[in-house]
């Protein structure tokens, strides 16, 4: 007799109120001594070889013909690799993988797409909508592991997509579909099959309410690549990140545009984060944020109005509320006119972009100062820098890459920290100003050259 945690899979011989592994309460469930009936056959081991004699060409990545998906995986999907893709409900995981499967199948590669959440007819309708119909794309609505393994044996696919791992169950294992025991055994069986056949496999994983992948944590250790698909429900932008990748880096991000007729790779997503109007009202400032290795030009907007009630409001969208509160405090201490105690402050980004790194501090400050003073910044200007609590502007990583991205998109002026350009070459025909303190930056960009259009 044993007890297993339904959240993380931790096992113990006695019942405990709280799981020692994941610290969850009341999740230890009683299991029989022989809960798993899966038999493992003893096979004669193959001869070991010197590592220099191993054929590395068998593990070379192959393109999925979806550029942003290849970018995150490290150039493509490796034969025998198992990719786990997670994300919130409705973010577009199934749409993305159906598009990937169809693109590969259009080149004559046999793809088996197994869905356990929808009927085959529902998937067919989505495929028609996103133009993902291909003769080499095989579709099956199945939730039994044995049937899926039988399809793999009979059809011999070159790519397997399972949507989702929590819907599959084995009749030889106790537990409900999606439970710790079932997920562990089903994943182990599919991974063994993928490695034995050099069959690249993509598994969709559900997430819990706190954002972690449902099932045992062992699942993330077993697979080769763990990706998360992110995006705001009311925004077109979707981002794919690799949390774990045995075949490539984990510091890159893939950008996708979710449209009515499908999902498309975005090689240049900065246009989604900029307003389309020709006017440049007060409270608007541009910055360059870094998403993995990719620099993105983002527009920050602020609005400051007189509070109608006795208590002022602070509302943000796309930026960290605590970061905005810090920048308001810095401005109130270092800029004479910044008395916002009785004002409502609203700060947001354009297009659903998210600013979380300190490099956007200067742009947030300048956006707030511009809205407070009622003066517009120069339109072709970016502000890049971290602002300390004392008001000092500090340098940020990858400044040269950020400035080159801004120059590529037509930006002609930039404001950075003092000394930041010591080892960085300014892009051609771009004027870069260095400021040491936030008070000097406000004076430079809002009261002097910026007003006359000289910066």
Automatic annotation (TrEMBL):
Descriptive protein name: DNA repair protein RadA
Gene3D superfamilies found in the cross-reference section: 3.30.230.10, P-loop containing nucleotide triphosphate hydrolases
Keyword Nucleotide-binding carried by entry: yes
GO terms under biological process: proteolysis; recombinational repair
Lon-protease-like as annotated region, ranges: 344-455
Native source organism of the sequence: Brevibacterium linens
Lineage: Bacteria, Bacillati, Actinomycetota, Actinomycetes, Micrococcales
Entry keyword annotation includes DNA damage: yes
Record's keyword terms, sorted: ATP-binding, DNA damage, DNA repair, DNA-binding, Hydrolase, Metal-binding, Nucleotide-binding, Stress response, Zinc, Zinc-finger
Domain of life according to the entry: Bacteria
């Amino acid at each position: 007799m044993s007890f297993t945690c339904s959240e993380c899979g931790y096992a113990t011989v006695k019942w405990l109120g709280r799981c020692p592994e994941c610290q969850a309460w009341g999740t230890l469930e009683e299991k029989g001594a022989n809960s798993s009936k899966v038999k493992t056959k003893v096979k004669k081991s193959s001869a070991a070889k010197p590592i220099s004699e191993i054929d590395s060409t068998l593990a070379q990545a192959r393109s999925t013909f979806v550029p942003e998906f290849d970018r995150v995986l490290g150039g493509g999907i490796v034969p025998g690799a198992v990719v786990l893709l997670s994300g919130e409900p409705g973010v577009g995981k199934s749409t993305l993988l159906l598009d990937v499967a169809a693109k590969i199948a259009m080149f004559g590669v046999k793809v088996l797409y197994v869905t356990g959440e929808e009927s085959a007819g529902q998937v067919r309708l989505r495929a028609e909508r996103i133009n993902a119909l291909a003769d080499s794309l095989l579709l099956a609505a199945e939730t039994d592991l044995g049937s899926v393994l039988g399809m793999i044996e009979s059809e011999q696919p070159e790519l397997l997509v399972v949507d989702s791992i929590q819907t599959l169950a084995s009749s030889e294992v106790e537990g409900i579909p999606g439970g710790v025991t079932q997920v562990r055994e089903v994943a182990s069986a599919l991974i063994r099959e993928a490695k034995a056949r050099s069959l690249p496999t993509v598994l969709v994983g559900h997430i819990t309410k706190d954002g972690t992948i449902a099932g045992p944590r062992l699942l993330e250790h077993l697979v080769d690549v763990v990706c998360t698909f992110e995006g705001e429900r009311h925004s077109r932008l979707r981002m794919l990140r690799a949390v774990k990748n045995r075949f490539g880096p984990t510091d890159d991000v893939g950008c996708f545009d979710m449209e009515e007729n499908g999902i498309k790779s975005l090689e240049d997503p900065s246009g989604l984060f900029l307003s389309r109007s020709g006017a440049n009202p007060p409270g608007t400032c541009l910055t360059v944020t870094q998403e993995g290795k990719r620099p993105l030009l983002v527009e920050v907007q602020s609005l400051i109005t007189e509070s109608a009630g006795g208590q002022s409001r602070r509302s943000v969208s796309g930026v960290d509320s605590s970061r905005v509160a810090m920048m308001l405090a810095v401005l109130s201490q270092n800029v004479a006119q910044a008395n916002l105690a009785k004002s409502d402050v609203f700060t947001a980004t354009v297009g659903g972009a998210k600013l979380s790194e300190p490099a956007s501090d200067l742009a947030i400050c300048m956006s707030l100062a511009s809205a407070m003073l009622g003066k517009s910044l120069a339109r072709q200007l970016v502000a890049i820098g971290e602002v300390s609590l004392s008001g000092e502007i500090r340098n940020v990583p990858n400044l040269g890459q950020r400035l080159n991205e801004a120059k590529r998109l037509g930006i002609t002026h930039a404001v950075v920290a003092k000394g930041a350009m010591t080892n960085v070459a300014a892009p051609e025909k771009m004027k870069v100003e260095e400021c040491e303190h936030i008070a000097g930056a406000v004076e430079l960009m809002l009261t002097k050259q910026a007003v006359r259009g000289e910066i």
